[in-house]
């Protein structure tokens, strides 16, 4: 296995030019408003905006990443307790993009009936939301892809829903180990037809990959209005 140069790892995956990085900055500098929390499928908001969903195992850092992208520390509620997010939380980003923060799957400190309920809701949403442009599948860089991630990826492949792996908490792993995880993850994604080929490595604490991820999401948002 060939390791990537540490400098390349620090810059994140993908080829993002300055113009695209600026588009991402402008998109996420807009006002981001919390809309609602859905606990049932009929509560999911009707919208014509392109939508991005943040999915991943419990405590992988979904809410923390939403906050880092928008530059707002408390926009999405965070917790060190796995399974704290138990609803689908929706945010309107400048009338150009809808963000959906989803409950974690896998281990959670919650009653089994509650876990089963929000797991059903999340999976129904992921496979039945026509305006959903991409799912960001968050994976803890210290652990890599786990069984629960593989199961979700297979479901999304079958439903033909586009997803992109975003590695989180890269400030907690050595650069050499991170390079190995990136290469292994990218290799695994080649076998999944609905997977975006680029892996983006991020650190909400250190800022790594945040600008690149903003740029990536700007490509699916509605265009900026002139003037």
Automatic annotation (TrEMBL):
Keywords noted in UniProt: Cell cycle, Cell division, GTP-binding, Magnesium, Metal-binding, Nucleotide-binding, Septation
Keyword Metal-binding: yes
Family matches, as Pfam families: MMR_HSR1 (PF01926)
Boundaries of every EngB-type G domain copy: 48-223
Listed PROSITE patterns: G_ENGB
Superkingdom of the organism of origin: Bacteria
Record-linked InterPro entries: G_ENGB_dom, GTP-bd, GTP-bd_ribosome_bio_YsxC, P-loop_NTPase
Cofactor: Mg(2+)
Role noted for this protein: Necessary for normal cell division and for the maintenance of normal septation.
HAMAP family for the chain: GTPase_EngB (MF_00321)
Family according to the record: Belongs to the TRAFAC class TrmE-Era-EngA-EngB-Septin-like GTPase superfamily. EngB GTPase family.
Protein name (record): Probable GTP-binding protein EngB
Native organism: Fodinicurvata halophila
Record gene name: yihA
């Amino acid at each position: 296995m060939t390791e990537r140069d540490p400098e390349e790892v620090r810059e994140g995956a993908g080829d993002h030019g300055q113009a695209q990085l600026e588009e991402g900055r402008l998109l996420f500098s807009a006002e981001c408003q919390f809309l609602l929390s859905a606990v049932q499928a009929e509560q999911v908001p009707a919208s014509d905006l392109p939508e991005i969903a943040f999915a991943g195992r419990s405590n992988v850092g979904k809410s923390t990443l939403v906050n880092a992208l928008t530059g707002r520390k408390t926009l999405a509620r965070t917790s060190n307790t796995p399974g704290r997010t138990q609803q689908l939380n929706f945010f309107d980003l400048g009338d150009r993009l809808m963000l959906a923060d989803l409950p974690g799957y896998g281990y959670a400190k919650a009653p089994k009936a509650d876990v089963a309920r929000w797991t059903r809701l999340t999976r129904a949403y992921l496979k039945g939301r026509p305006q959903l442009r991409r799912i960001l599948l968050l994976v803890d860089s210290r652990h890599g892809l786990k069984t629960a991630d593989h199961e979700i990826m297979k479901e999304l492949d079958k439903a033909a829903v586009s997803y992109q792996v975003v590695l989180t908490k890269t400030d907690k792993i050595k650069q050499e180990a991170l390079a190995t995880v990136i290469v292994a993850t990218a290799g695994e994604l080649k076998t999944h037809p609905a997977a975006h080929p680029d892996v983006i490595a991020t650190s909400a604490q250190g800022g790594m990959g945040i600008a690149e991820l903003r740029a990536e999401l700007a490509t699916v948002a509605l265009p900026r209005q002139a003037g």
